[in-house]
């Protein structure tokens, strides 16, 4: 079996070419996930960190369909959402500790 390697260095050409060659319409993240699964089924081996790959797929989905608010929100969440969540978790942990100390 011959594999087609997809790396950090070539995803910007391999993925769009695959989408165009197969007349795939990317409107939402589910379309991109289906495309990814189809590529794996067709011997594309993604040699990219999984977290980075997820972020790339979200960004590329937004590039194909920038007028979709859900795509925009997903990109923004990946940029700032996890930082905000970490801060919230820290606050809730501090609240529990303070509560335990005052009880």
Automatic annotation (TrEMBL):
Sequence ranges of Acidic residues compositional bias: 83-94
Location of the region described as Disordered in the Swiss-Prot/TrEMBL record: 81-103
Name of the molecule in the record: Uncharacterized protein
